[in-house]
Amino acid sequence: MNRDNIRVLFSAEAIAERNRALVQEIAATKPERLLVVAVLKGSFVFAADLIRAMDAAGMAPEVEFMSLSSYLEGTVSTGQVRVLHDVESPVEGRDVLLVDDILESGRTLTYAKDLLMARGARSVRICVLLEKPGKRAVHLVADHVGFTCPDVFVVGYGMDVAHAWRQLPFVGVIGD
Ligand code: 5GP
Ligand code: MG
Ligand code: MG
Known about the structure:
Elements lengths: L5 E5 L1 H17 L6 E6 L3 H13 L5 E12 L2 E10 L9 E9 L3 H12 L4 E9 L12 E5 L5 E2 L15 E4 L2
Parallel strand pairs: 2-3, 2-5, 5-6, 6-7
Antiparallel strand pairs: 1-9, 3-4, 8-9
Helix pairs in contact: 1-2
């Protein structure tokens, strides 16, 4: 696979501008003791940019990470989720912002939100870079959405195909 075969869908500049707007949306919710929980691995670039945009907006979030894996039967998701890495600090009483790359079926984010709420978070809001409409398996509405994504497989800006292309500064589509 050649980098030249990857078409830019959302440019680095468009993403940076959208991130600043997302931070304004998030700031308007007036979060207290804000804890950003980034869902690994796909959201690590987005979360890193988001927290620096938060700093520029005068916010001071703490940051934690979760790694979640869907149980597969062959290549089909069973809908069950396993926690591979958990947040390390207590979430009780805190306003949590769950950050992920793409909202598709909604299963992993629903699981993570329910888990953090059960642990006594004051609120859990969801921020995703991309949302693919019409793919939801469970009812879940993201509170903050970067872009609506067409039903294509995207890579870059933290997202991979077979572990490749996370380093691209833009969101792109392979070979079309
Ligand atoms: P779901 O919402 O189905 O629980 O999980 C969506 C997850 O599937 C995303 O966080 C991402 O890891 C993966 N995913 C879905 N669509 C794409 C895509 O177009 N490209 C990449 N790289 N990952 C995707
Ligand atoms: Mg993911
Ligand atoms: Mg992946």
